Amino acid sequence: PTVTQLYRTKKLPSAGSTSSTFPPSQYLNDRISLIRNDITKLDVECIVNAANRSLLGGGGVDGAIHRAAGPRLLEECSGLGGCETGDAKITKAYDLPCKHVIHTVGPIYDSAGKQDPEYMLRSCYRTSLELAVQHGLKTIAFPAISTGVYGYPHHLAARAVVQEIRQFLEQSKGDPNALHRVVFCNFEPRDMDVYAQMFLQYLPPTA
Ligand code: ADP
Questions:
Q1: Contact between residue 3 and residue 29 where contact means Cβ atoms under 8 Å apart
Q2: Ligand 1 centre distance from Cα of residue 182 (Å)
């Protein structure tokens, strides 16, 4: 099935849209959305940045987030003392339409066996979700962490992410502080396709 067959809304939200205009998801009581957009345009409560360990900005989605947030984001990040791979830190969002940015550091895929990339990637998503819950945030949007410059194969990353999300949402069922919505905000069409495949495989429609 194609993404549009899986998700009822064909139209992607336009720049600056609110969370209520995201395409509805057929999975897990509408708690997951899959969209293709520039993550810096989303006015959800919180977006996740695929940062590097310095937290001082970089290319790709990190560069886009810092450009759109303005120099005060770098100022706040400079005081955080960096971040370990698999861990996450939260800041304000300054000139971005969202309220907070969670900076997480994905694994470099080919880092000569020093770390288990799947463990680290799953840790990025889990730690970011936990941080959002701790801060009382209800909606979070993720880019496809590590699949750009860090070289994580797209389908392997999507599989690990969907498995981790499924586990997280199952564990938080019934929790009054649980997140209302997790948005996967992809940039590249091929990520839309692999996420759609993985959702179908690991999060089959509930009804
Ligand atoms: P990493 O170093 O973790 O691999 P990159 O920024 O190089 O991070 O890439 C991560 C993913 O973010 C890639 O799939 C890339 O296509 C995507 N991406 C780049 N810019 C944006 C953006 N503005 N919004 C959403 N995703 C983006």
A1: no
A2: 17
